[in-house]
C-alpha cells in the first residue's frame, strides 16, 4: 500500500467499519460480487512496452489489492525480464530502421507466457513502440491472445497505442475507441467499423475500454475501478497516491496539441 | 519513446532543427554541459517499493533518454527481481505485524547492488512500505549508499517517503523537505534541523529535491528535467506522455486532505 505508516492504524480501523457499512450502502450487485471474490488481472508486456502505460494503472490496481483480493499475471512471449527499451523497428513501412538501443532499459518481470497465463477476469494491454515492432515482424501473439481470452474476460482495457493492438485483434469492430493522440495516424484503416474518437481521454464500451496516451491510463483506471468496486476505497487510495485524476472522459487537450480534434 | 510512429518523422526532423537551434538559444552552461555528455542515473529499489514512485519519474527519464544520452542503474540489495509487494513489517513499533502477502506483486529488475553500482550523476530514491520494513530491521543499506554517493552526485531526488530515508541518511540536515502527506507523522524527529514543509508538491534545495507522495514525483521530475536540460524537448515528451503536470511547487491539496497544513 502506498507508503503509509501510522495512518494505517486509522485506515485499518476505517476499513473494518467501512467494510460493513459500504457493503450495505449503495453498491450494485456487480460491485458486491467483485468484492466477494478474487479478481484475476492480466497485464500484457512486450519488448518496448511504455513504462507508464503499465505502471500508471498498475499502481492503482496494486493499491486496490490492499482492499480487495486480486491476483496479477504479467504476460509476454516468455517469462523473465521484459525491457521497455524499443527493439529495432522502422518508423513506417517505407522508413529507415530505427535503432533506439541507446535508450535506457528498465525491465519488468513477466510471470506467464501467452500459453501459460491463467484464466483472467481483467486483461490490460499497454502501448509502446514495441507493438510497432511486433506488427512489422508480423507477430500477432498479443492479438491472438486477446481473441482467445475475449469470452472469458469481464473487461479488456488498453492504454495508449494498445488500442491499435485491440483493433488489429478485431475486438473493436463495431465499437468506439481512442488511442494516443501523438500517434493518431496509426488508427487509420485498423479494424473494421471502429469508431475512432479523436477527442477523448478514454472511451467506454460494454466490456472494452480504451484510453488515450500514457498518463491517460491512470484517469481511465480510476473511473474503471470506481465502476467495478464502488468509490469508497478507490477514493481513499487516490488520496494516498496523491493523484488528482481527470474525471471527464471528454477532456482531451492533447487532441488539440497533436491536432487531431478533427479526423 | 512514447508509442509514436509516423509522428516520429516529424519529431526527428524537429529534433535535428531543434538540436542546432536550442543549443544556441538561451540554454545555460549547465544545460549545455548536461546535453553534451552521458548522464548516469541510479534508481534505488527495495522490496515494497511504491510502483509509481519509481515509474512516474522513470517514464519521464526514459522518454528523455530518447533525446539525451543517459544510462540507468536500478540498485538494490541484490540484482534480479525486486517486488513491490510489502514485506512483513509492523505499522509502528508497538503495532501488530502486518502481513500483506495477499497483495499483488509486480517485480522490477535491479541491475546493480549497492556495492556494484556505477558512478552516478543523479540518484533517485522512491518511497513505499518497504522502507518501513528496512527501518524496523535496522537495515541502513539505502541510507549508507546515499551517504557514500552524496559527493559524487550532482542531484539526489526522493519521491514520497523516500524523503524519510534521505532524512535518516543525514543529507537533509539543514535543508527543507517534504514527503507523502498520508504518512506525514513519519517526518517527526527524523534528521537534524530538517525544515519539513507540510504544504508542498515538491521542495528544491541546492542539490537535494524531495517530492510529496507517489504521483507528485512526476510533477517534480518535470520541473527537474526542464531545469536540467532546458524546456524544449522536455515539453515535447510531456505532450507525448499526455501528462498535464502541476507546475506550482506549492500546490498541495493533499496536505489539506490529510490534514497536515499545519504541523
Automatic annotation (TrEMBL), chains A, B:
<dbReference type="Pfam" id="PF01965">
    <property type="entry name" value="DJ-1_PfpI"/>
</dbReference>
<dbReference type="InterPro" id="IPR002818">
    <property type="entry name" value="DJ-1/PfpI"/>
</dbReference>
<feature type="domain" description="DJ-1/PfpI">
    <location>
        <begin position="111"/>
        <end position="226"/>
    </location>
</feature>
<feature type="signal peptide">
    <location>
        <begin position="1"/>
        <end position="24"/>
    </location>
</feature>
<keyword id="KW-0732">Signal</keyword>
<protein>
    <recommendedName>
        <fullName>DJ-1/PfpI domain-containing protein</fullName>
    </recommendedName>
</protein>
<dbReference type="InterPro" id="IPR052158">
    <property type="entry name" value="INH-QAR"/>
</dbReference>
<dbReference type="InterPro" id="IPR029062">
    <property type="entry name" value="Class_I_gatase-like"/>
</dbReference>
